[in-house]
């Protein structure tokens, strides 16, 4: 199966509305999701949720593992439950085929080799600031629209997804610096984006400015 075939198969799995709801819910969560929680979020039975979740695993959109949701171990802790999380593999389809990834790699490589990190950050910050005024009430929606999948971790707004993940893997300093500058431009003055990388998420987190 070619890469295009795999991408078509993965996206085809989301034609079912129940699967779309389940995928969106699981993908947005910072932790593994059990069948009960996914079923409740999608408004379907546990057995139906299990069926569709496993189909999403087969399509490569989710990954599955087993663990005790109670957090206890030893006798009486119960059987391990099947849990799901978003797969790290990216799927993209363009008709006719386009090679934006190759261009992005070439541009990032050129900028890095030329030592233009500061100029890239300035451009990213200006691009973020060009967004219509964002206030505290809008910030989560704006970040969601841009694909960051924000979620609250106590008083910190963390980002489940990095929209630039593929390039950040190859050019971490360049792309993460650009991303931080972009979010500095987007965020209201009452917020402070900072570098705070965590496994399985974006390298930037946002917190309210003190004072």
Give a short synopsis of this structure:
This protein is α+β, with helices and mostly antiparallel strands and 211 residues long. The protein has nine helices and seven strands. It folds into two domains: 3-86, Arc Repressor Mutant, subunit A, CATH 1.10.10.10; 117-208, no CATH class.
Give the SSE string: HHEHHEEHHHEEHHEE
Report Rg.
20 Å
If strands are numbered along the chain, what order do they take across the biggest sheet?
1-3-2
Distance between the termini: 56 Å
Helical stretch count?
9
| Biggest sheet statistics | 3 strands, antiparallel
| Strand percent estimate | 15-25%
Write down the oligomeric state.
single chain
Describe the structure.
InterPro entries: ArsR-like_HTH, WH-like_DNA-bd_sf, WH_DNA-bd_sf. This is Helix-turn-helix domain-containing protein. It holds the Pfam family HTH_20. This protein is of the alpha+beta class and 211 residues long. The protein has two domains: 84 residues, Winged helix-like DNA-binding domain superfamily/Winged helix DNA-binding domain (Arc Repressor Mutant, subunit A, Orthogonal Bundle), CATH 1.10.10.10; 92 residues, no CATH class. It has nine helices and seven strands, in the order H-H-E-H-H-E-E-H-H-H-E-E-H-H-E-E. It has a three-stranded antiparallel β-sheet. The protein has a two-stranded antiparallel sheet with strand order 4-5. Helix 2 crosses helix 3, helix 2 crosses helix 4 and helix 3 crosses helix 4. The protein is globular, with a radius of gyration of 20 Å.
């Amino acid at each position: 199966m070619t890469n295009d075939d795999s991408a078509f198969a993965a996206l085809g799995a989301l034609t079912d509305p129940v699967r779309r709801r389940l995928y969106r819910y699981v993908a947005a969560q910072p932790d593994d999701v059990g069948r009960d929680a996914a079923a409740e979020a999608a408004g379907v039975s546990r057995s139906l949720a299990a069926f569709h979740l496993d189909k999403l695993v087969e399509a490569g959109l989710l990954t599955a593992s087993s663990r005790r949701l109670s957090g206890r171990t030893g006798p009486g802790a119960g059987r391990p439950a099947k849990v799901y999380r978003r797969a790290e593999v990216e799927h993209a389809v363009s008709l006719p085929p386009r090679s934006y990834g190759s261009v992005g790699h070439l541009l990032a490589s050129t900028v890095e080799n030329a030592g233009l990190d500061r100029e890239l950050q300035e451009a990213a910050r200006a691009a973020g600031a060009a967004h219509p005024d964002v206030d505290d009430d809008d910030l989560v929606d704006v970040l969601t629209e841009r694909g960051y999948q924000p979620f609250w971790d106590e008083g910190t707004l963390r980002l489940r997804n990095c929209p630039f993940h593929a390039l950040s893997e190859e050019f971490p300093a360049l792309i993460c610096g650009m991303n931080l500058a972009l979010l500095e431009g987007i965020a209201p003055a009452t917020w402070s984006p900072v570098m705070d990388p965590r496994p399985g998420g974006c390298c930037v987190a946002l917190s309210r400015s003190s004072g």
